Amino acid sequence: MSGGGGGGGDGGSSNNTEWRFNQTLRNVQVRMIIERSFPGKVLLSQRSEPLSPPDYSSIFDRDEDEPNEGSQEGKGPSPGNSIDNTSAKKSNCPSTSSTNSLPDAQGIVFGARATDSARIAKFTEELSRPAVTLDKLRKLAWSGAPPYMRPNIWRLLLYIPDSDRVDEEIDMLSQIAVDCPRTAPDVTFFQNPQIQKSLERILYTWSIRHPASGYVQGIKDLVTPFLVVFLSEHLEGNIDTWSMDDLSSQDISNIEADCYWCLSKFLDGMQDHYTFAQPGIQRLVFRLKELVRRIDEPLSKQIEEQELEFLQFSFGWFNCLLIREVPFHLATRLWDTYLAEGDYLPDFLLYIAASFLLTWSDKLQKLDFQEMVMFLQRLPTRTWGHHELEMVLSRAYMWHTMFKSSPSHLTS
C-alpha cells in the first residue's frame, strides 16, 4: 500500500493502480456531491433501450463548419432526462463564441471527427445549458468527444446516478459529516477539521463501494486505528503533538487510500455485521449469552433474573469491536490481535467479549437491573493499561482453545 513506503516491481505498480482508482473515485464523487461543480439537481430517467449509433451520412456529406440544419439540439431539454447544470461555467468547456480559438487536438483525438468545429460547438452548447440533456450528450459522445472536454463528459455519463441514488448519497454524506466530529471525543487530535475531512472521504468512499451495507455509524470508529498507524509513518512524537500542516497533500491522499483499502480488507469477512438488521452481530449476541452461561453460570443467572438482555449492552460492543470501551491508546494493540486473527476474527470476537464482560463478574452479580445498566454503560476502563488488555486477550485465547474442538456448545 502506498502509505507503507511503496514496493518494487509489479507490486509497486499494482499498489499505485489501486491508489489511483481510489483517488479518482473519491475526487469525482466527493466533488460532485459536496462542491457541486456540476450538476446541481439530477432530473434523469433510466434509458430503457440501447442507444443507436448516430446517422453519419449528414455529418460526412456536409462541410465541416456547416451546422446541421435539421438538428433539434438547440431546443430546450426534454422533461425527465436532464441535469441542472447552473455551475457549468466552472468547467473547462469553452463558449460557442470561442470556437475559433479552440486548441488543435487533432493529433491526440481518439475517434473520427471529434474535433470538428461544428461538433465542438454542439458539445459546448449542450454542456453550457442550465440543464444538460444526457441522451443528447450520449449521441454526441458516441462518435468521439474532444479530448479536452472528455473528462467532464465522462464524469457526466458515468458518475451521475438517478435522482433517488443521489438523494441517498447526499443523506449518507450528511450523516457521515454529523458523525465524524463525535469520533474518539477524548482524543483532541480527532477534533482537527482536516482529520475529520479525511474520515469523511474514507467513509464516504467505503460506503458507496459497499452498497449492501452503506454507512453504519460504528464503522467510523474502526477507521481510527488505521489512520493513527499510517499517520505515524509521517509524524513523530505523541499523537497530542501531531500537526496536519506537516503533511503534504500527497501524503494525506496516500494515507487516506491506505485506510480505505485496509478497512475494506478488514471488514471483508464481517459484511453481515453491517448489512440490514446486522444479522452477523445478532448471531454473536446470541452466542455470547450461551457462552457466558457455560463459563460463568452465577453471572448468567443474575443477568437473567434481573431481566437484562445481552442485546442491551453487547450489541454496541460488537458493532464497534470494543474500541469505544477501552482507552484509545490501547486500540492499536487490540487491532494487532484482530488483524492477526484474519478471517477467524468474527469467531474470536465472541471470546473477547465474554472475557471482557467477565472481568467484572463478581461486581455484576451484586447489582440490580438499573445498577447493571449504569455500570455497563460506563465501564471503569479509562485507567486501563496494556496489562489489563492482555488479561482479557489471554482469557479469550484460553476459552477459544478450550471450546473450539466442540463447537456444538454454541448453537447459532
From TrEMBL:
Ranges of Gly residues composition bias in the record: 1-12
GO terms of molecular function: GTPase activator activity
Record's protein name: Rab-GAP TBC domain-containing protein
Region (Disordered): 1-20, 39-104
Domain Rab-GAP TBC residue range list: 144-342
Biased composition (Polar residues): 79-103
Pfam families, sorted: RabGAP-TBC
